[in-house]
Write a structure and sequence with these properties.
Layout: H1 15-40, H2 48-81, H3 85-145, E1 157-160, H4 171-174, E2 178-184, E3 187-197, E4 200-207, H5 210-220, E5 223-228, E6 239-243, E7 246-250, H6 257-265, E8 269-277, E9 279-280, E10 292-300, H7 301-309, H8 313-365, H9 379-421, E11 432-439, E12 447-453, E13 458-466, H10 471-490, H11 494-508, E14 515-523, E15 528-534, E16 540-542, E17 549-550, E18 568-572, E19 578-582, H12 584-587, H13 598-608, H14 614-629, E20 638-645, E21 662-664
Parallel strand pairs: 2-9, 11-21
Antiparallel strand pairs: 1-4, 2-3, 3-4, 5-10, 6-7, 8-10, 11-20, 12-13, 13-14, 14-15, 15-18, 16-17, 16-19, 19-20
Helix pairs in contact: 1-2, 3-8, 7-8, 8-9, 9-10, 10-11
Length: 665
């Protein structure tokens, strides 16, 4: 398990503490202003208005910050309460699943209450019509008998145009038949007028007084409170109702009975209102908005059923309640099943989320071995399995990264070893200067060069190129270097050396692997160059006054066949000669269009070179190749090795400092 670097927590903001300090300061300002105002007011000190204004501003700040703090507290509380997914799902279920039931129940209750109110209103008007019908019947009986009918209230008024009482009637009522409600001196009346003869009119008037209200309550069970328009000041214990710009006061006294009656009737009785236009007593006109009677009706619910269904109301209500109770129980059963199903879903979701949360925290700690191990029965299960696959992939990736880091470390060590295998110094002969450059395309290259001091008058150089790149080519190169060093120290001549190296490469590599090698022995005493080649680029001999000349010795590379046939070319060595050795990565270097650097440019460059020092020639070649390639990276290893011979006949000097201009890697 690899450790995971924890990200630093962001610095906590201090805005809350600063706002709290402002809130305390505002409160302190209010308290100080109040104390100073009370102390200075008796002294009549001028400028107290400034304290009042300061207190006002501080109060605004205090109220604003208090509301802001309350909002922040509510937000913090909601986050703490509903941080977990299960609680959020439960709240969502309550809002989506249960709230519509409550809203629908409120809607049904409202509609039912309105229906009951309309039925109560109809019942009141029915009672009024029944009372008017009784008055009409009593007026008809009186016209026949001339006697006061039995069973009427004491407040009943009887007027007959044939007697003196008829003179009190208004003109319009003496000459017409009328049945309705009339206003006389702010007193509502039930009036029934009947013409029994062309010249006789009988009028029965029933005042809507407390006696009539009491009889109505005894008969129907309804309680009615009537009020006329009132423009005076509202008295204590009364309730004022506004309608169309008119005011009606109920229970215009100080007892407060109306308020208690209404409060005790809420929820148990139907409370409804009726506004009826009254006919004017003097003119007989009915005008909407004038002469109105406001009636507050308080009616028990059971009275409605008795009013509309008569004696069978109890059995009807019982059957209705039983049906409703059965339906409610059935709906509750279905709802309980839905709640159980929702609870199972919520539990499964929260359990999966909790497991995934534990997994993410384990990954955050760096534990990539944690597995959620959930069945893919739903989308969360698929997510959990994806999480397991992700952690497994990450764990494998980390193992691969660690392995690659280990391999890269080993490759860097191998590259360091390879660089150490290359010669650190040139030939130890006075008058011989040397320079080299080695640039691998990978960490470990396949190019190779070396310098050997054979004896006091002879030196040898070798340059080669193993096919391919990477660690395997580096191993072949190291193996060949060790073999060449051993063979040179043993004094093996060129033919034997190449045969033994060919046998080594052929047996130690795959059939497709091979190695080019050029081996040259310089005899400073005889002034000769013996060059043996195995498929490598020909070296160039640079001589004053002559064009660059390649020492051509054609042959196959090492490792291509089990046997190899080599040839050795011998060339005279003169003072001032320079030998240039290259790998194919120089001449095959391509530009952005794929055009190689080529032998023509190389030979032209060597021909133009005036300064024949090895370091100068090396730098000129590398700069020319770099200009040719531009931004394109190297495709193959690039190796350059150059020797120059000046005054080499002085021979080998053991105590002399060797002339090594530069060897770059």
């Amino acid at each position: 398990m690899l450790p995971v670097q924890q990200r630093p927590e962001p610095p906590r903001t201090r805005r809350g503490s600063r706002l709290f300090a402002v809130w305390v300061a505002a409160l302190a300002v209010i308290i100080v202003d109040e104390v100073l105002t009370r102390l200075l007011r008796p002294l009549h000190v001028p400028g107290l208005g400034l304290f009042t204004f300061t207190t006002f501003l501080a109060s605004l700040v205090l109220i604003a910050l208090t509301l802001y703090g309350f909002a922040v507290f509510v937000r913090w509380t909601l986050r703490k309460l509903f941080w977990r997914v299960g609680r959020r799902l439960f709240l969502s279920y309550v809002l989506i699943g249960m709230l519509p039931f409550f809203l629908f129940a409120i809607l049904l209750l409202t509609i039912g209450y309105m229906i009951c109110g309309v039925m109560t209103h109809a019942a009141l008007r029915g009672e009024r019509q029944a009372a008017l019908g009784q008055l009409e019947s009593a007026a008809f009986e009186y016209s026949l008998t001339g006697k006061r009918p039995a069973g009427v209230t004491k407040s009943l008024e009887i007027y007959d145009t044939n007697v003196a009482s008829g003179a009190k009637l208004p003109a319009w009522l003496k000459s017409t038949t009328f049945s309705g409600m009339v206003e006389r001196g702010h007193q509502p009346l039930l009036v029934a007028s009947r013409q029994s003869a062309p010249a006789r009119t009988i009028v029965f008037i029933e005042p809507l007084d407390p006696e009539w209200v009491e009889q109505l309550q005894d008969k129907s069970g309804m309680t009615v409170l009537m009020a006329r328009e009132n423009t005076s000041k509202l008295r204590k214990g009364s309730i004022r109702v506004e309608k169309g710009g008119h005011s009606f006061d109920l229970n215009d006294n100080d007892s407060g009975a109306v308020t208690d009656l209404i409060l005790h009737s809420i929820g148990t009785k139907v409370i409804w209102a009726d506004v009826t236009a009254l006919t004017d007593w003097d003119s007989g006109a009915t005008i909407d908005g004038r002469h109105e009677l406001f009636t507050l009706i308080i009616n028990p619910f059971q009275n409605l059923f008795h009013f509309y269904f008569g004696a069978q109301a109890d059995s009807y209500v019982s059957a209705l309640l039983q049906f409703t109770a059965g339906l409610v129980i059935l709906l509750l059963v279905f709802y309980a099943m839905a709640v159980l199903f929702a609870a199972v879903l919520i539990f499964s979701i929260t359990r999966a989320v909790n497991r995934i949360e534990k997994g993410t925290k384990a990954v955050e700690r760096g534990d990539f071995t944690y597995r959620i191990a959930m069945k893919p029965q739903n989308q969360l299960g698929e997510m959990a399995q994806s999480f397991d696959r992700m952690t497994e992939s990450i764990a494998t990736l980390l193992v691969n990264v660690a392995e690659n880091e280990r391999l890269q470390s080993e490759i860097e060590i191998a590259a360091s070893i390879q660089r150490n295998l290359l010669p650190k110094e040139g030939p130890q002969f006075r008058g011989v200067s040397f320079s080299a450059h080695f640039e691998p395309t990978a960490s470990i290259g396949g190019d190779y060069y070396d310098v050997f001091n054979i004896d006091k008058t002879r030196l040898a150089v070798a340059i080669g190129d193993v096919s391919g790149h990477g660690l395997s080519t580096g191993l072949v190169m190291a193996m060949v270097k060790a073999a060449i060093t051993t063979l040179v120290e043993e004094g093996a001549e060129e033919t034997s050396l190449f045969h033994r190296l060919n046998d080594l490469v052929y047996r130690s590599t795959e059939r497709r692997a091979f190695m080019t090698l050029a081996f040259t022995i310089f005899d400073l005493e005889k002034g000769t160059i013996r060059h043996t080649n195995a498929g490598h680029l020909y070296p160039y001999l640079l001589r004053e006054g002559q064009k660059p000349r390649g020492i051509e010795v054609p042959s196959l590379p090492l490792g291509v066949r089990s046997t190899i046939s080599t040839h050795t070319a011998e060339v005279d060595l003169q003072e001032g000669d320079a030998i240039v050795y290259l790998s194919d990565g120089i001449v095959e270097a391509q530009d952005e269009h794929g055009e190689p650097f080529g032998f023509d440019q190389l030979e032209a460059l060597l021909s133009r070179s005036v300064d024949r020092s090895p370091s100068t020639i090396r730098d000129q070649i590398l700069e020319a190749v770099a200009r040719h390639c531009g931004a394109r990276p190297a495709d193959d290893d690039r190796t350059v090795m150059i020797l120059r011979f000046d005054n080499f006949h002085h021979g080998y000097n053991q105590n002399a400092v060797p002339v090594l201009e530069e060897a770059t890697v």
